[in-house]
Amino acid sequence: MLKVVVATVLATCCCLCWSAVSFRSERALVVDEETGEVLLDKNSDSAAPIASMTKLMTLMVVLDKAQDPEEVLVVERADIDSRERIKTCIPVGTQLPRRTMVTLALLASDNHAASVLARTFEGGRAAFDDAMRQKILDLDLTSTVIEEPTGLSPRNASSAQDLVKVLTAAEAYPEITSATSQASQTVVVNGRVRDFHNTNRLVGSPGWDISLSKTGTTVAAGRCLAMRIQSAGRTIIVVLMGAVEKSARVIDALSIRRWLTGEEPPVLQARAAASSKPPRHRTKATRVASL
Q1: pTM of the shown model
Q2: Cβ atoms 33, 227 nearer than 8 A
Q3: pLDDT tens track for 43-91
Q4: CA 26, CA 284: separation in Å to the nearest integer?
Q5: Cα angle at 209 between 206 and 213, to 5 degrees?
Q6: Rounded to a whole number, what is the distance in angstroms from the first to the last CA of the chain?
Q7: 51: left (phi over 0), alpha (psi -120 to 50) or beta
Q8: In 110-244, which residue ranges form alpha helices assigned H by DSSP?
Q9: What CATH number should be reported for the domain whose range is 2-260?
Q10: Counting CB atoms within 10 angstroms of each CB, which of 8, 100, 239, 269 has the fewest?
Q11: Burial (0-12, 13-18, 19+ Cβ within 10 Å), 224
């Protein structure tokens, strides 16, 4: 299936126009997983920072090693990254099974969990980095560079085309699909019960059937989102990269879903409303349409 999707994406990406949906994200790609048909495309072949979408690659590499999921791992000072600005709920000294670290690295996008998993990779961090380079080759990711496991580095970069390959490959890992399709999970951390919520707030929302997803946000990457969804009777892969406004990636996702189901995206609805109003109202309507 991966080869079919990849071949079709590469063959058709350059032929498609993204004007059917007015994307706020700088890069976007929407693909029918079964047929490989590219449905929507905007700058999908150009590489850019991917932030925490890196963790999909990190977890595939970790899970390929098949280490004991019940082994208790400890967060150490070595897992702290000075670039991290978000307060973590698993501070230094936290002890959790590898299985739980996997879940938190994906569902809550916890950087310490991702770092622990890479650091405790069999053979150490150097072996993890070697395995990552091999994974990039195995998946034929021609625009992808991963230099560390969390996504905090702005040099972790990829293209939307490559990320479609990543999502297609990640589907084969039950641990990844399970963790990223949950809206939340309760975990006992240092004796305290904590609720961790999916960083993709569309997961579990009415009208959304999401079987795999990952977000990413840094200054360099903007706001990114990758998802595998069911819509209009099809399995669709969505990749959005480089949105600036906080709500932009969600608005783009909503516009894609409306387009897939035959509804007009909000911008087209606004334009239609503007054209149907008397001339004296056109200035106001046009302003609404451009928001």
Answers
A1: 0.84
A2: no
A3: 999 999 999 999 999 999 999 999 999 999 999 999 988 776 666 779 9
A4: 27
A5: 115
A6: 39
A7: left
A8: 111-119, 124-138, 160-170, 174-180
A9: 3.40.710.10
A10: 269
A11: buried
Domain with CATH 3.40.710.10 in the chain: 2-260
Residues 6+ apart with CB under 8 A from 134: none
What six digits make up the tokens of 232?
Answer: 């209009």
- 128-162 pLDDT per residue, tens: 999 999 999 999 999 999 999 999 999 999 999 99
Distance CA 220, CA 218 (A): 5
Cα angle 36, 37, 39 (rounded to 5 degrees) comes to 135
Could you tell me the two tokens for 240? 């959005």
How far apart, in whole angstroms, are the C-alpha atoms of residue 229 and residue 282? 37
Matching residue, tokens 């699909």: 177
Residues 186, 208: Cα–Cα separation, whole Å: 22
Copy the structure tokens of residue 123: 């053979």
What does the chain come to in residues? Answer: 291
The helix/strand/coil state of 44 is coil
